[in-house]
Amino acid sequence: MRYFILLLALLPMVSCSSPEERAEREAQTEIAACTKAGYQPDTPAFDNCRLQVKAQADQRAADRVAAGQQLQPNLPGLGPTGYSIPLR
């Protein structure tokens, strides 16, 4: 649950950062999560934990995108990104 809150807190900053900054922030989140779970850095178990945390974050992102795409046809005037497109 704390991870979820941390990710929600970081979400506004994600759109205003470079891909490198986002990757670094994601890596730090993964490291913090696995360290807190009791895994020791530089071990296969720690690496596996990071992969699982990343996969969960990727799945949540995909779920959010899918949910937005399902709602979009009901929102006239919005483009594929969800931003308003001027109607002619």
Classify the secondary structure makeup into a structural class: mainly alpha
**Distance between the first and last residues' Cα:** 45 Å
- Total beta strand runs: 0
Overall pLDDT metric? 75
Question: What is the fold's blueprint, element by element?
Answer:
Layout: H1 2-14, H2 19-36, H3 44-71
Helix pairs in contact: 1-2, 2-3
What does this structure look like?
The protein has 88 residues and is an all-alpha fold. It has a domain at 40-67. 67% of the residues lie in helices and 0% in strands. The protein is built from three helices and no strands. Mean pLDDT is 75; it is low at 83-88.
Can I get a quick summary?
By secondary structure, the protein is mainly alpha-helical.
Keywords:
mainly alpha, 3 helices
